[in-house]
Amino acid sequence: MRAVRLHEHGGPEVLRYDEVPIPEPGPGEVLVRVHAVGVNPPDWYLRDGLTNLPPETRPKFSLPVIPGTDLSGVVEAVAADVDGLSVGDEVFGLLRFPSFDGSTYAEYVVAPASDLALKPAGIDHVHAAGAPMAGLTAWQFLIELGHDHPSPFQAAQHRPVPLGANMTVLINGAAGGVGHFALQLAKWKGARVIAVASGAHESFLRELGADEFIDYTKSRPEELVHDVDLVLDAVGGPDSKRFLRTLKRGGSQFPVFFGEFDEEETVKLGVTVTGTQVRSNGAQLAELGRLLDAGTVRVAIDSTFALADARAAHERAARGHIQGKIVLTVA
């Protein structure tokens, strides 16, 4: 089969289109013929050698490695001990995360059956492949954590805040993969949503249900907004702390990518900062799948590239301002 592999770390040019053996499923696994692959930030973190992660949080891996975690495809073979999945089933999933052993940039992938859900019949493989990591990140931050594994970035377990009609949620990076799912899930729960993104995304985010839009290239959200109940910062990082001043006392901030916060400041403001690390979860993905099937939540596709053109997909990602998801298609 053909697969994209990394033999060394570096820029998009190190992604190589190789011939490799088709893997065989072990206990608890199925073989999936891949139709589409979602592209996610951990794919380029791996390509770069995980240099942006603290050394103690870096998963172990060895080169050459096939990147990728998200897929949509069709079950080709099933281990004898697997129940609930059959040859011919259309499935989607986030594989083996937070390890980097998903290996989805390939024509065939072996997947733990517990990481998969049946693909919603109402959407195609491209849209299904765009959902797992970004959708489960939004779900585990906002709706239900779904596991008791500790986060490598904080001692306390993350606890989502119950969302409802009396809540105002600010979402920074609202047009990206996690952001556009978070916006739709918050609206599903009845919250009022303030979306922060660049101006080009305003009509897209209002279509998804944003009640208010802030173009961060023209205004500073932290100077315009006050007394919100929850900030979900899908960008995160060192600048995330600027959103603390938008929160009311008792409010919470969820940085998706770990940030730098002063505990003294958060105590003084009376706010909570908490996050988690997304984990594979087929059962939660099935719940999200029902919302996708009903049209309650939709997957926006920024662009698609053939698997052989993974380099171009990573170059697109590096340019930023992504609206929804980048997806690789497998012939």
Report the CATH C-level class of the largest domain. Answer: Alpha Beta
Shape: globular
Structural class: alpha/beta
What's the Cα radius of gyration? 19 Å
Mean pLDDT: 96
User: Strand-and-helix sequence, N→C?
Assistant: EEEHEEEEHHEHEHEHEEHEHEHE
Largest sheet: 7 strands, mixed
The tally of domains stands at 2
Tell me the number of helical segments per DSSP (H or I, 4 or more residues long): 9
- Return the CATH architecture of the largest domain: Alpha-Beta Complex
Low-confidence stretches: none
Helix share bin: 10-25%
CATH homologous group name of the largest domain: Medium-chain alcohol dehydrogenases, catalytic domain
Question: CATH topology of the largest domain, what is it called?
Answer: Quinone Oxidoreductase, Chain A, domain 1
GO molecular function: oxidoreductase activity; zinc ion binding
Organism: Streptomyces avermitilis (strain ATCC 31267 / DSM 46492 / JCM 5070 / NBRC 14893 / NCIMB 12804 / NRRL 8165 / MA-4680)
Protein name: Dehydrogenase
InterPro entries: ADH-like_N, ER, GroES-like_sf, Lipid_raft_assoc_Zn_ADH, NAD(P)-bd_dom_sf, Quin_OxRdtase/zeta-crystal_CS
